[in-house]
Amino acid sequence: MKEVTALKLTYVNYVNCDYYSKQFDCIRDDYEKKDWFWTDWHYIVDIFENSVMEDLPSVQEAIEEGAIIKKMYFVEDRNYSGRMNDFKNQYGLEGDWDGVDGAEDYGVIFTSYNDAMNYQIFINLLTNNYQKDFEPGEDVIEKELALYFINRISYEEVARKLLNYQKYGIQGAGCYLDLFTGLIYGGKDNGRLPWGHIPLAYLSKDYNRIEKRVESELSNCRRSIAMYDALKLACIMEFENFKEALDEFYEEYYESLP
Fold it and tell me: Which of 43, 90, 157, 242 has the maximal Cβ count within 10 Å?
């Protein structure tokens, strides 16, 4: 996924089985010289250079005629026309989207960052880009995607993962992001982490969830005891400094590449 700047044509006529736009006439010469695409919903976008240059005189003329510069997000997908309906049914959409194609599909542009990130995840899962048993030097998810996964998960969900593995007085637990699969999982804290695993939170073996329970709250709570315990832990839990850990990992990772 990458950010692109597109030119939105706001006035387009359909005449004699073809489109006509005075705004497009302003940029026609540049359009024919450059690798720009005109989408079905009348966005002019350059997915190779990442932007339609605002400072070009032709683009400024088009803006004076009413065209609009818009920040969008492009996800490469050479088969989006066969997948988009499934994506919309599974994830829904916050904003608008449009396909970028010529003789073949190139990908999709989105007005919403969240839609674009969800589509990137959707494509990665479909194309099996999230695999297991990677070795150092193999592909990892992009840092931006790693941060997106972490920002999406709630404290309560992390707390549930920790409580699933913590045993009071016996073993602590940890919650980690696997940078090879994009999965966030819980496990027992044995003091060692495989390469490419970023710790999000830890729970000591000394944490006594029973002592945290308040009978009056439990009696009025419609949640299960397990959900109640997770909610109580989430209120006091703190995340590890995962941003620093990510910076260190990606610096080491890129240095390891040939």
Answer: 43
